[in-house]
Task: inverse folding
């Protein structure tokens, strides 16, 4: 290796132009000259290391790790936020339902505060009468039970017809 270095011709390094030079096509920041390295004897190539001496592939890997860490640190609070929003919507709906029920019950309470309404309900539901009134209870007769053993079929005509078609003649 030492022999290769001794045989390789040395190329002089370029010196940065003076600070006040006129006519330069590109401007570079001071101290940001690309570093030159020797990869093989006689050749000079710009180094691939950049900021802080880290290659661009490593910088990309570090950036990917940082982005993943940020995404994971945001994912849990975001999930909690969405869950709480859904719970809030459910609770708001339940509150509206309860408010409607309270309004209905308040209306019924106001209606039942009237003595005439109470009397009407007592007469219809409980069968109450005033003193001196004669209550009448109408009972409808129940139809007589038919004996089941007389042998005659009391089915509807279409049921008898369908049974005769599917089973054949009796």
Result:
């Amino acid at each position: 290796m030492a022999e290769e270095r001794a045989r390789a011709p040395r190329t002089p390094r370029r010196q940065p132009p003076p600070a006040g030079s006129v006519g330069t096509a590109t401007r570079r920041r001071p101290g940001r000259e690309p570093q030159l390295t020797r990869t093989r004897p006689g050749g000079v190539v710009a180094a691939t290391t950049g900021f802080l001496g880290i290659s661009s592939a490593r910088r990309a890997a570090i950036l990917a790790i940082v982005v993943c860490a940020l995404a994971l640190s945001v994912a849990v609070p975001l999930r909690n936020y969405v869950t709480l929003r859904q719970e809030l919507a459910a609770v708001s709906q339940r509150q509206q339902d309860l408010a409607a029920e309270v309004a209905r019950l308040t209306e019924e309470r106001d209606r039942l505060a009237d003595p005439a309404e109470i009397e009407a309900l007592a007469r219809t539901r409980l069968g109450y009468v005033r003193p001196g009134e004669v209550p009448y209870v109408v009972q409808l007769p129940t139809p007589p039970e038919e004996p089941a053993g007389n042998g005659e079929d009391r089915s509807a005509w279409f049921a008898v017809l369908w049974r005769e078609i599917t089973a054949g003649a009796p």
